[in-house]
Amino acid sequence: MDRYQEIDIFIKSIEDLQLNLTQKQLQQFIDYYELLIDWNKVMNLTAITDFIEVIHKHFADSLSVVHVYKPSNDKILDIGTGAGFPGIPLKIMFPDTQIVLLDSLKKRLNFLDEVIDKLQLKHIKTLHGRAEDYGRDNMYRETFDLVVSRAVANLATLSEYCLPYVKKDGFFISYKSGNIEEEINKASTATKILGGQLKEVKRFHLPGTDIERTLIVLQKLDKTPIKFPRTAGRPAKEPIL
């Protein structure tokens, strides 16, 4: 398959999400992919390197949030962003958003800083540190319309990482795969204590594939008690159950 055919598949996968790419956005995604592959040769950013797989499992997956929430002028935080998913694809697709990419590994953020510079993205920045620490900082606490995360952690732990950043009436959306019923049930206490409420569970297939994904949507109804998030490491070791 040549690159033109691959790009056609990419465009189709975006159209399946009821989105349309401009020529500029298409080039930004291609540049992002090429930087990802180059940097991946010297550091572990992703095990997925085939262009078609990246289209489906990273780009389309990141943008699948539109099934439940379509960003416009929102202030968005991506916690545990890794190689920039879902934050960078969201910024490319929705350029009017303001996005913060939070990760605990500086090397990954060095990569993302180059992506931001090469793609000439505006109103987006990287933030180095742990979610537990910045979640107690008034500059970031309860200031975001939307917090997203594809990080691998149970929902109770993720809720303690993410909900403190969400302002009242805002949303935390967790990207998940596999059977998550038990995980959702176990997180119900944490969600309530942290000021959130389960609003929606959206199951779907990634465009053009039989890969199943789930978006868990939590809405922030009340302020998060000041003692949360707890000190670094505790949400993972001792989730609220």
Automatic annotation (TrEMBL):
<feature type="binding site">
    <location>
        <position position="85"/>
    </location>
    <ligand>
        <name>S-adenosyl-L-methionine</name>
    </ligand>
</feature>
<feature type="binding site">
    <location>
        <position position="80"/>
    </location>
    <ligand>
        <name>S-adenosyl-L-methionine</name>
    </ligand>
</feature>
<dbReference type="GO" id="GO:0005829">
    <property type="term" value="C:cytosol"/>
</dbReference>
<feature type="binding site">
    <location>
        <begin position="131"/>
        <end position="132"/>
    </location>
    <ligand>
        <name>S-adenosyl-L-methionine</name>
    </ligand>
</feature>
<dbReference type="Pfam" id="PF02527">
    <property type="entry name" value="GidB"/>
</dbReference>
<keyword id="KW-0963">Cytoplasm</keyword>
<keyword id="KW-0489">Methyltransferase</keyword>
<keyword id="KW-0698">rRNA processing</keyword>
<dbReference type="InterPro" id="IPR029063">
    <property type="entry name" value="SAM-dependent_MTases_sf"/>
</dbReference>
<comment type="similarity">
    <text>Belongs to the methyltransferase superfamily. RNA methyltransferase RsmG family.</text>
</comment>
<feature type="binding site">
    <location>
        <position position="150"/>
    </location>
    <ligand>
        <name>S-adenosyl-L-methionine</name>
    </ligand>
</feature>
<comment type="function">
    <text>Specifically methylates the N7 position of a guanine in 16S rRNA.</text>
</comment>
<keyword id="KW-0808">Transferase</keyword>
<dbReference type="InterPro" id="IPR003682">
    <property type="entry name" value="rRNA_ssu_MeTfrase_G"/>
</dbReference>
<keyword id="KW-0949">S-adenosyl-L-methionine</keyword>
<protein>
    <recommendedName>
        <fullName>Ribosomal RNA small subunit methyltransferase G</fullName>
        <ecNumber>2.1.1.-</ecNumber>
    </recommendedName>
</protein>
<dbReference type="GO" id="GO:0070043">
    <property type="term" value="F:rRNA (guanine-N7-)-methyltransferase activity"/>
</dbReference>
